[in-house]
Amino acid sequence: MSTQRILVVDDEPKIRMTLRGYLEADGFEVLEASDGPAGLAAAIRERPDLIVLDVMLPGLDGFEVLRRIRATRQVPVILLTARTEEVDRVIGFTAGSDDYVTKPFSARELALRARAILRRAEAPATEERTLRFDGLVIDPGTRTVTCDAGRTVELSALDFDLLVALARAPGRVFTRRGLIEHVWGRDFFGDERVVDVHIRTLRRALGDDASAPRFVGTVRAIGYRFLARPAG
Questions:
Q1: Contact partners, residue 149, CB within 8 Å, separation at least 6
Q2: CATH number listed for the domain at residues 5-122
Q3: 94 and 206 in contact (C-beta within 8 Å)?
Q4: What is the model's pTM?
Q5: Which residue spans does the record list as DNA-binding (predicted)?
């Protein structure tokens, strides 16, 4: 099996050096870029297995780099951000990132998250029945979602996995920790509120209204559940 490659795009040499040390100790090959244009070029040229991408970059910011990467290929992306505003996290996930880490952060935690994301991406496809609900069809085999009159719903890999976890058990109440274990894995380290951010982007993609949801409902102080009834 070939060594997996991770591209680290950050304008701070100390951060790149620290991440290189932890990621190489975990067996990854590490590539580096120090600004947005160089990071975008490396992502296209080198085709890494995962990208760690800072938001505040010279030349092109991380959100724009992410959008342009997503126009060419689907590769897992972890955003690094010093911004704490929820809107920045939502923009990042809408653009297609798989996770985010807020600075200052633990390099060891980031390495564990990278390993977990790559493990999910490598999981072999399984033959699963199509999930059909009123107004929604989810095909785990082709990883496609259609809503209402055949509208294709564009989801990141992680948002798709989150939707499937909920839809496999309609009506069941999932805690944030429960969803993390189903989707992110038991070795996830970080803020459980990452689930809330992904639920927001999932609802946005589905055209779901949080105040009167059709598909994903909030259970106050506990978590979330899938609301749609099976078709037929």
A1: none
A2: 3.40.50.2300
A3: no
A4: 0.71
A5: 128-228
pLDDT digits (tens, 9 = 90+) for 96-125: 677 878 888 888 888 888 888 887 766 655
pLDDT at residue 1 above 70? no
**Selection from 200, 198, 197, 222 nearest residue 213 by Cα:** 200
Q: What is the pLDDT, as a whole number, of residue 137? A: 95
Residue count (the chain): 232
- Which part of the chain has CATH 1.10.10.10? 131-226
CATH 3.40.50.2300 maps onto the chain at: 5-122
Cβ burial, residue 220 (10 Å; 0-12/13-18/19+): exposed
Contact 31, 46 (CB under 8 A): yes
C-alpha gyration radius of the chain = 18
In the chain, the N- to C-terminal Cα span, in Å, equals 45
Structure tokens at 223: 């978590």
What are the φ/ψ torsions at residue 222 (nearest 5 degrees)? -125, -60
In this predicted structure, the answer to whether residue 174 has a pLDDT above a threshold of 90 is yes
Q: Which residues lie closer than 8 Å to 180 by C-beta, 6 or more apart?
A: 188, 192, 194, 195
Identify the pLDDT of residue 94.
65
